[in-house]
Amino acid sequence: MSEKKRPVAVIDSGLGGISVLNHLLTQLPNEDFVYFGDTANAPYGSKNTEDVLELTVRNIRMLAEKYFAKAVVIACNTATGAAAEKCRELFTNMPIIGIEPAIKPAVTKSGKDDPKVLVMATPLTLSQEKFVHLAEKYNPNADLIPLPCPGLSQVIEEGADEKKVNALLKKLFADIDCENIDAVVLGCTHYPLVSDSISKYFAGAVIYDGGLGTAVQTKRRLSELNLLENGTEKGKLTIINSSEDKNFEILARRYIEICS
After folding, report:
1. Helices (H), 10-144
2. 259 included as an active-site residue
3. What average pLDDT does range 141-168 have in this prediction?
């Protein structure tokens, strides 16, 4: 198999990376993709950095050896912060693209001198150096409000029951002055899958996530390395998970339809 015809792997702890995959499918319609959810070890957001690093390295190695992935997209903010840099050192023969909270566009596109920006993310993402450095960079120009969202990714993994999602969001936003928020950053790839529910609390805010930027960067890296599939046929999508949960692919494809 030629390098160009090998698939692009997309990895997450579960279904959250589907929000990034949707952008990838639009940007790269002729590429084959393997989407991998590490459901046996989910959620990542409540683990420590060392465990997430170990899991991510193991998963990338599996996708390289078993599926001959030509590139890997880490479609998880927590795993990107914990493992992307180290994985690039270990896997020098393939591009590894990560994701980060879309704080920059949320701050720079607000049109205000000191916008109030709510950053929703997992507890681990908000504690990582990557986020701390981003916050330090943009805090002088904005009022960044970090909001840990324990449990939200799990509810989405279970199918995003509307009543459960709304009950949890109501609890998470209880102390937030929602009317005066200018932008909301969805700092976990799960959260765009329920962005409609989140947006109802923030009538005056713009919602941002990093999925599109990650897809554009993936296309750019494949082009730079002459790895873009140059055929005209629509690519194939393979969906797998580490716990062999039969319902995983059903839910994944349902989220793809909802978000496309």
Report:
1. 18-27, 49-66, 77-90, 103-108, 123-127, 129-138
2. no
3. 95
- Euclidean distance between CA atoms 47 and 40, whole angstroms: 13
Model confidence, pTM: 0.94
Distance of CA 151 to the CA centre of its chain: 16
Q: How many CB atoms lie within 10 A of CB 134?
A: 22
Residue 106 burial (10 A CB sphere; 0-12, 13-18, 19+): buried
Which residues are CB-neighbours of 171 under 8 A, at least 6 positions away?
none
Instruction: Please report, for the chain, the start and end positions of each structural domain, with discontinuous segments joined by +.
Output: 3-98+211-259, 103-208
What the block records as the tokens of 44 is 């990542």
Identical fold, 3-98+211-259 and 103-208:
yes
**pLDDT, tens digit, 9 for 90 and up, residues 97-145:** 999 999 999 999 988 889 999 999 999 999 999 899 999 999 888 999 9
Q: Taking a C-beta distance cutoff of 8 angstroms, is the pair 198, 126 a contact?
A: no
pLDDT, tens digit, for every residue of 212-256? 999 999 999 999 999 999 888 999 999 999 998 889 999 999 999
Catalytic residue among 76, 87, 149, 178: 76
Fold of 3-98+211-259: Rossmann fold (3.40.50)
Exposed, middle or buried, 50 (CB in 10 Å: 0-12/13-18/19+)?
Answer: exposed
Assign domain 103-208 one CATH number from 3.40.50.720, 3.40.1190.20, 3.15.10.40, 3.40.50.1860: 3.40.50.1860
7 phi/psi in degrees, rounded to 5: -80, 160
Place of tokens 């990714």: 153
Active-site residue flag, 76: yes
Question: If we measure between CA atoms, which residue out of 76, 17, 85 comes closest to residue 44?
Answer: 76
